Amino acid sequence: AQAAEAAPFPPVAYLFCGNWRLLTSEGYSEFLADVIGLPWAVRKIGERIYPTPIISMSGDGKTLCCETVCFGGKPVYEVLMRGHSTFHEPNQNVDYDVQGEWQGETFVASRRSPRIRDGQPIVKRIFLNSGGNELTIAQSWGGECDFVATFCRRR
């Protein structure tokens, strides 16, 4: 008998799909300063422009994709997958190596770029709460606080 191929992600991943709107945010200014490296004046403008994630499933059901849009910026496309992947952040012109995994119902990605924080990892966690109606994205980088944003589904 042939072993069944492991699913690329748990069933909860389908609930991640949708257009999301920001509800709350903590630590965004620190993220923009410590990780993105924005100077104070630019950061003050950036603090008013929040990311808007759009998560979708590919037609074959094998790839979970995240497009993040910030007003005035170029969209960022990531694949949320188990194992190694890469993505290009066009607003910073930075390439990241990503190691992703599902920890229960949370997607965890360790992202590294030699151009950001001397290659130290930035850990991104994505999970649902409130019965699947809220999506939380938390990013840790060893700073004083994490960047935690909670989104609700756009209607």
Describe the structure.
- This protein is mainly beta and 155 residues long.
- The chain is built from 3 helices and 10 strands, in the order αβααβββββββββ.
- The chain has helices at 13-16, 28-36, 40-46; strands spanning 18-26, 52-57, 64-69, 76-80, 83-89, 94-103, 106-112, 122-129, 134-140, 147-153.
- A 10-stranded antiparallel beta sheet has the order 4-3-2-1-10-9-8-7-6-5.
- A hairpin with a 4-residue loop joins β8 and β9.
Considering DSSP H and I runs of 4 or more, what fraction of the residues is helical?
Answer: 10-25%
Mean pLDDT: 90
**Backbone structural class:** mainly beta
Element-by-element helix/strand order? HEHHEEEEEEEEE
Strand content is over 45%
Q: List the strand order in the largest sheet.
A: 4-3-2-1-10-9-8-7-6-5
Described by the principal axes of the CA atoms, the overall outline is: globular
Distance between the termini: 46 Å
The count of helical stretches stands at 3
